[in-house]
């Protein structure tokens, strides 16, 4: 590996896995379609809620502006963020992506995810959990 994640060395039992979702995912901010994809993946991470990632090619780039926000994860790498611009105003830091993830997380390299407490995510037309990503007890 040329870019291994330091987190796995310190925590070898920690897991980050992805799997194809196999369902249509649509992300909306009000009536604005922010993303729509049949190629979403579900990311499962130790002690985190599952998170949907959609290919960046399926984002409505015309509705997005890049943010200066950046966060770091010792398992996935550095995340970049985007705002969603709507007629009602800006939704700050609603989308993130690991543009150059660590080797173990390369399956999400060209994918982005969404704060489900800031947008509406529909899986095959059904509104998904809107509590937002975060830690769990599992």
Overview of this structure, please?
- The chain is mainly beta.
- The chain has one domain (6-126): Domain of unknown function (DUF427) (Metal Binding Protein, Guanine Nucleotide Exchange Factor, Chain A).
- The protein has 1 helix and 11 strands.
- The protein has a 7-stranded antiparallel beta sheet, with no helix packed on it.
- The protein is globular, with a radius of gyration of 15 Å.
- The model has no long low-confidence stretch (mean pLDDT 94).
SSE blueprint:
Blueprint: H1 6-10, E1 16-20, E2 25-29, E3 32-37, E4 41-45, E5 51-55, E6 64-73, E7 77-86, E8 89-97, E9 111-114, E10 120-123, E11 126-127
Antiparallel strand pairs: 1-4, 2-3, 2-10, 4-5, 5-9, 6-7, 7-8, 8-9, 10-11
Short description:
The protein is mostly beta strands and 138 residues long. The protein has one helix at 6-10; strands at residues 16-20, 25-29, 32-37, 41-45, 51-55, 64-73, 77-86, 89-97, 111-114, 120-123, 126-127.
């Amino acid at each position: 590996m040329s870019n291994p994640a330091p987190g796995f060395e310190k925590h070898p039992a920690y897991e980050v896995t992805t799997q194809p979702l196999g369902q249509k995912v649509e992300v909306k901010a009000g009536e604005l379609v922010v993303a729509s994809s049949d190629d979403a993946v579900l990311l499962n991470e130790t002690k985190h809620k599952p998170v949907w990632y959609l290919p960046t090619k399926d984002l409505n780039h015309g509705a997005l502006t890049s943010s200066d926000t950046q966060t770091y994860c010792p398992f996935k790498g550095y995340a970049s963020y985007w705002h969603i611009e709507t007629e009602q105003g800006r939704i700050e830091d609603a989308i993130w992506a690991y543009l150059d993830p660590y080797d173990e997380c390369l399956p999400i390299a060209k994918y982005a995810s969404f704060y489900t407490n800031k947008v509406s995510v529909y899986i095959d037309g059904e509104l998904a959990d809107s509590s937002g990503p975060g830690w769990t007890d599992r």
